[in-house]
Structure formats: C-alpha cells, structure tokens
Amino acid sequence: MTKRRIRRGTRQTRAILSSSGVDPTVVYIIEDDSDLREALAWSLRGYGYRVVDMTHDAVDSVGSWPHVNADSGRFSFADLIITDQRLLCRTGLELLSAVRRVDWVTQMILISDATNDEVKAEATRLGVAAVLAKPFTLEEFVDTVQHIAPAA
C-alpha cells in the first residue's frame, strides 16, 4: 500500500486498509486532557492509524488492553503506546513500567511538560522510543509517530 494521507474515519480509509490485507498500525493514546487526546487521535487516524484513545481511568487495567481488531477480527495489542507523563491516577512512567512488567515489547512515546534528566533517564531505562516535550505541534507529533511506528 502506498503511503498517502487518508481522511479520518471514511469508508475509503477502511476499504483501503482492509483491501491491503494488512492490519493498520494500532496506537493507544493515554491522556487525561480530552481535547488533546481527541486531537492527537484525530491526527493519527488521518494517516491510517487505528487509534484506541483512553482516559486515565483505563490505565489501571493494563491486562484488559488487548482488543479485537474490527477489520480483521484478530486479537491484537498496540504497536505503539503514547502516554502523558502527568496523569490523574499515576505518572506515565509508572504506566509504562506496568506495561513492561506484563512483558509487552511495544514501542512507547512519553509526552511531558517536565522533561528533566530524571524523567529522561527513567524513560530510557523503560525503553521509551521518544520523549515529546510540550508544547508541540500536531506536525511534530505525527512526524515522531511515523518515525517510530510507520502506518501499515
């Protein structure tokens, strides 16, 4: 499938992705700011990503995250997890640590407004692929995601 910008949520998007025989890249976005979460999800869907956007409440149930892909009917995990560092119930690093404890080797991006050396060191230890400092543009966000986990 050639890479091109596909409008979010259209029948054309679903048809192209399902006709390609390749499941779309699955991205979990964990962000407690609903406006930011929706903007990030919308921007990735526009490039053919399958986005599961989660509130901070969902992070307590890491084991329930795998989902059935609606296009293929197959059970799948996230190809990429994007989380904010400052969530209401825990930090993004605590969440990513929990993901590693259940042996997921999923790529990760941490979004943070406090990118001090301690946060960066812990992110590196957990295998975080990128730390994206706030504020950032949607273009910077999409470029970072595409570099780490290209859309299928």
In short:
The chain is 34% helix and 19% strand.
Explain this structure:
By secondary structure, the chain is of the alpha/beta class. The chain contains 5 helices and 7 strands; from the N terminus they run H-E-H-E-E-E-E-H-E-H-E-H. A 5-stranded parallel β-sheet has the order 2-1-5-6-7, sandwiched between helices. The protein has a two-stranded antiparallel sheet with strand order 3-4. Helix 2 crosses helix 5 (138-148). The chain starts with 10 loop residues before the first helix and ends with a helix. Mean pLDDT is 76; it is low at 1-19.
Average of the residue pLDDT scores: 76
What Rg do the Cα atoms give?
15 Å
The major beta sheet can be summarized as: 5 strands, parallel
**CATH class designation:** Alpha Beta
Tell me what the CATH architecture is: 3-Layer(aba) Sandwich
Structural class: alpha/beta
Report the count of strand segments.
7
Lateral strand order in the biggest sheet: 2-1-5-6-7
Question: By CATH's scheme, which homologous superfamily applies?
Answer: Response regulator
Please tally the helical runs, counting DSSP H or I stretches of 4 or more residues.
5
Give helix and strand order, one letter per element, not per position.
Answer: HEHEEEEHEHEH
Percent range of helical residues: 25-40%
Q: What's the CATH topology name?
A: Rossmann fold
Low-confidence stretches: 1-19
Global shape: globular
